[in-house]
């Protein structure tokens, strides 16, 4: 892979399990968001107008159940594409045994908080995101 990847760890919380004894799919989405927020804070330097973005689309493949004792989970993230106002973020969730539990792609849109509209990515944002840009062929190696 030519671009860097970002990895953070998250614990499976007691309240994340449903009555079937596994983590409900809605909690997967929370894990993805938590990993993405950590990634964007680390890469773009925190919250505020610089780096403000919203999720336009989220596609998730649920591949393996997460149980109470599956943690800590590793959330690995990288950038898949960079456009004028948007960028793609790939997520891979693995359990403590290294089993891939989910893969997801989020389409993020740069957002102007004052006007509630999309905005063009700044050159600084583009430069920082490019460090984590991994092409589709590289991510399948």
Secondary structure layout plus pairing:
Layout (H helix, E strand, L loop, with lengths): L5 E5 L14 H20 L8 E10 L10 E10 L3 E9 L5 E13 L4 E2 L4 H8 L5 H4 L2
Antiparallel strand pairs: 1-3, 2-5, 3-4, 4-5, 5-6
Order of helices and strands: EHEEEEEHH
Strand content: 25-35%
Largest sheet: 6 strands, antiparallel
**What's the overall geometry?**
elongated
Indicate the low-confidence ranges by residue numbers.
none
Fraction in helix: 10-25%
On the 0-100 scale, what is the average pLDDT?
A: 90
Oligomer: single chain
What gap, in angstroms, lies between the N and C termini? 8 Å
Supply Rg.
Answer: 16 Å
What's the total number of strands?
Answer: 6
Summing up helix and strand content along with how strands pair, one would put the structural category as alpha+beta
Number of helices: 3
Protein name: Acyl-CoA thioesterase
Pfam family, one: 4HBT_2
InterPro entries: 4-hydroxybenzoyl-CoA_TE, HotDog_dom_sf
Organism: Rhodococcus ruber
How would you describe this protein?
This protein has 141 residues and is of the alpha+beta class. The protein contains 3 helices and 6 strands, in the order βαβββββαα. Strands 1, 2, 3, 4, 5 and 6 form a 6-stranded antiparallel β-sheet that branches. The longest helix is centred in the N-terminal third of the chain and has 20 residues, at 25-44. The radius of gyration is 16 Å and the shape is elongated. The mean pLDDT is 90.
């Amino acid at each position: 892979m030519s671009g860097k990847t970002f990895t953070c760890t998250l614990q499976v919380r007691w309240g994340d399990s449903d009555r079937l004894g596994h983590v409900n799919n809605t909690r997967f989405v929370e894990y993805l968001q938590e990993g993405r927020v950590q990634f964007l804070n680390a890469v773009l330097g925190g919250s505020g107008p610089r780096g403000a973005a919203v999720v336009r689309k989220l596609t998730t493949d649920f591949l393996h159940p997460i149980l109470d004792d599956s943690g800590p989970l590793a959330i690995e993230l990288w950038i898949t594409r960079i456009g004028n106002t948007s960028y793609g973020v790939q997520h891979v969730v693995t359990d403590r045994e290294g089993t891939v539990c989910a893969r997801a792609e989020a389409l993020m849109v740069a957002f102007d908080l004052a006007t509630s509209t999309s905005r063009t990515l700044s050159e600084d944002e583009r430069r920082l995101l490019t460090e984590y840009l991994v092409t589709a062929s590289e991510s399948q190696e």
